[in-house]
């Protein structure tokens, strides 16, 4: 789900106790993609969020970004993350809100696991996007540590369900598509992370079929 969602998904797959406390983040990206589709018409995005996690594994947070169709997007989420042996798990709920396009508001529940570094996650929405139809999204990623501060993460996602066709307006009558991304991330002192990514999707008729974008994110404790 865009670079932000890839990063959040990876973070929330980790044991909640590792993130106990309140944190914040601000970021700027040259493009904002959600599941392989630009949300800013290939223009830049300024984003930020606040998160709270408890040692029990419970977490909650809010995140916002500008978009090209809804003035700005605000996401509210909560969930529970932990570990069972060698398996990390994460379950939760997320609400996507768009200030000037409220008909596009929707909610999802999700669940995922991370095993031996491989992250798998499934999202379900009973009324996806601006539709009244259900949709599913399953995604997998595997971060490779190139050094202590440099990582490379390939990701693939699969969207399916009637809500994909009606909510994203696929014009070929299909209700499925794939998205792919490859993200190089570099962390530096002070809580900064620089990212460069390439992303694409399998559809010819949806905005932002292919994209290269860069970003800088600053994380901080509250």
Automatic annotation (TrEMBL):
User: Which N-terminal residues, if any, form the signal peptide?
Assistant: 1-20
What keywords are assigned to this protein? Answer: Signal
Q: What is this protein called?
A: Outer membrane protein beta-barrel domain-containing protein
Q: Name one Pfam family in it.
A: Gcw_chp
């Amino acid at each position: 789900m865009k670079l932000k969602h890839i990063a959040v998904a990876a973070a929330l797959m980790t044991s909640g106790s590792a993130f106990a406390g309140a944190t914040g983040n601000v970021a700027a990206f040259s493009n904002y993609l959600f599941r392989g589709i630009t949300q800013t018409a290939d223009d830049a995005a300024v984003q930020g969020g606040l998160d709270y996690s408890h040692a029990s594994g419970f977490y909650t947070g809010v995140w916002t970004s500008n978009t090209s169709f809804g003035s700005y997007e605000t996401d509210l989420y909560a969930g529970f993350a932990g570990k069972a042996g060698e398996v990390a798990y994460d379950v939760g709920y997320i609400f996507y809100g768009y200030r000037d396009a409220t008909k596009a508001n929707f909610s999802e529940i999700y669940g995922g696991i991370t095993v031996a570094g491989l992250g798998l996650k499934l999202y379900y929405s009973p009324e996806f996007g601006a539709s009244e139809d259900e949709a599913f999204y399953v995604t997998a990623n595997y971060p490779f540590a190139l050094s202590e501060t440099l990582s490379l993460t390939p990701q693939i996602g699969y969207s399916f369900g009637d809500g994909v066709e009606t909510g994203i307006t696929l014009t070929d009558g299909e209700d499925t598509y794939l998205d792919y991304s490859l993200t190089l991330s570099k962390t530096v002192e002070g809580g900064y992370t620089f990212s460069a990514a390439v992303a694409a999707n399998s559809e010819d008729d949806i905005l932002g079929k292919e994209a290269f974008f860069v970003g800088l994110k600053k994380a901080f404790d509250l």
